[in-house]
Design a protein that fits this description.
Layout lengths: L1 H5 L10 H13 L4 E5 L2 H14 L7 E5 L3 H9 L1 H6 L5 E5 L5 H4 L4 E4 L7 E3 L5 E5 L43 E3 L8 E3 L5 H8 L12 H10 L7
Parallel strand pairs: 1-2, 1-3, 3-6
Antiparallel strand pairs: 4-5, 5-6, 7-8
Length: 231
């Protein structure tokens, strides 16, 4: 993984579906505990940084592994072979709160219905949980997910990617723009081409206080994993 990260200096990376499958096979073969799957590599990088900011003296007792896309991730955790080949392991899948809502909603029954704590579903037959990114309790980004008139969410018309959890942090203004492909004035991250550089070079410099919005993700996982974190 260190070699992969060091290769990202150009700020761009592209994995094929086959490469994603190989990476997942490797992590599952060489570990035995719980795994948090993400949609992409920048999600993985940001979550690893978030853990180190929130729990600087604690070792994770779960792996974080990226997948190829939201569709790939959905199919991965729906596949019975994952559970047949790894009996007794717990799996978590984290989706952006955007069009990936369509993938997430296929993955079981509701077990957490508070969007600020991560909407979560569980598959009936397996220790497999699908989560949506936690919604900030206040502010502009909350309004891109939660309908203020009904209290419900916009489903696949929501717009919350992991980078948007840093919207409003001083000094990061240039990384966010109005999404002109939409008519609702929603904010988006400036470009996919800058995601890796942002995750690799910018996110680690952000003060730990701005990572509190990530805590519900880890709280949920720790609540399902016996023993919580390892000190």
């Amino acid at each position: 993984k260190a070699e992969v990260i060091n290769s990202l200096s150009a700020g761009l990376i592209a994995f094929s579906e086959g490469e994603a499958s190989l990476n997942i096979h490797h992590i599952l073969k060489n570990t035995t505990g719980a795994v948090l799957f993400t949609e992409g590599i920048t999600d993985e990088m940001i979550l690893e940084t978030a853990w180190s900011k929130l729990y600087p003296t604690e070792q994770r007792n779960f792996e974080i592994q990226n997948a190829f896309s939201c569709g790939f991730l959905r199919n991965l955790v729906k596949d019975k072979a994952l559970y047949q080949n790894h009996v007794g392991r717990k799996f978590f899948a984290l989706f952006d709160f955007d069009e990936a809502h369509n993938d997430w909603k296929q993955l079981g029954d509701d077990v957490q219905t508070d969007p600020c704590k991560c909407l979560a579903k569980k598959q009936a037959a397996y220790d497999s949980y699908a989560l949506l990114l936690p919604v900030p309790a206040t502010g502009t980004i909350k309004q891109q997910v939660i309908n203020p008139h009904t209290g419900g969410n916009y489903g696949n018309r929501s717009l919350l990617t992991i980078e948007l959890l840093f919207y409003g942090v001083a000094g990061l203004e240039n990384y966010f723009v109005v999404d002109t492909d939409r008519t609702d004035g929603f904010i988006k991250f400036i470009s996919d081409g800058q995601k890796v550089a942002f995750a690799k070079d910018v996110v680690p410099t952000i003060d730990a206080a701005h990572f509190e919005v990530f805590r519900p993700i880890f709280d949920f996982i720790n609540s399902k994993c016996a023993g919580g974190v390892l000190s």
